[in-house]
Amino acid sequence: MLRRARRGVVWCRVALAIAISGAAIAAPSSAQTGAQHVDSLRSLQRACRQAEGEGRRELLVLSFPAGSWSFGRYDAREGFLPIDTRRNLRAFDGAAELFPSGMEEVGFIVGEERATELRRRAEGLTLRVAFFLGFDDTTRTLCLVRPAVGVTTVRMDVAFLELTARRGRVVARQDTDRLRAWMDDAERDAIPGEGPRGAIGAATRSDGAGIAPESWQQVIAAENRGGTARALSRCHAEGLEHGASDGTIVVRALVDPRTGRVSRSEVELSSVGNDTAAACVARAISHITFAPEPALGSSVMLSLPVRLIH
Length: 310
Prior knowledge:
This protein is 23% helix and 30% strand.
């Protein structure tokens, strides 16, 4: 989550933001498709130079080990646990300093009990920050790259935050709208064909546990080439006839991991401007059968973004 610093207004607080659950995530969700891990000052400076051009922004990921970062004061009214960025985040033995764009506060939407737990564990957690350069405004100075004896400073457009324990196990994650917008653009570019058509993007767990299992993502990829893709095309074609536009529909689907079946699907968000088309998309999602994942329990709520274009 992001908030404007020194203000009481929450920045872009919408249903797409993923709240943090108390359970650890089984797989590191920062294995985001297309992410570039920044592991040296040289690679960070190279990313800065590449970001000076036009085109799609790259998703960069940088880790700050325990002890190099800290939490700010918990805001009980907003349920917000910020990362302390008043002195910038330092990386590579102080050779680089990074700060969020627009005087934003970054942190996690958590309850007071969960905030206390994360504070207690902070000394053993790594902060992983995913960010863009020039996502909000390409005309602003993105980086001040200095020689080895100086400090390189970087303005981050934050995409998501993660806290990881040993072996990269994710214990908390918070996404921002920048990540969703970036993923939507990728989904649009990846939809082949002509005429009204649609595709399902990366599914996330609504309990805050990050990306859905790889086996479920594979099912989605197959459905984007098969029967569900044809159903989405019909939904969008009919919607266009009744005033709908291209856009994204987010469907919330309740899945039984023991069977892989969807027991309920409903529209969470829609930007296409037609309720009938949105409901049609939700019905199409309801017919998907995922691979069984009994270790996930008796039910998992998924959030599935569906991009429709023509």
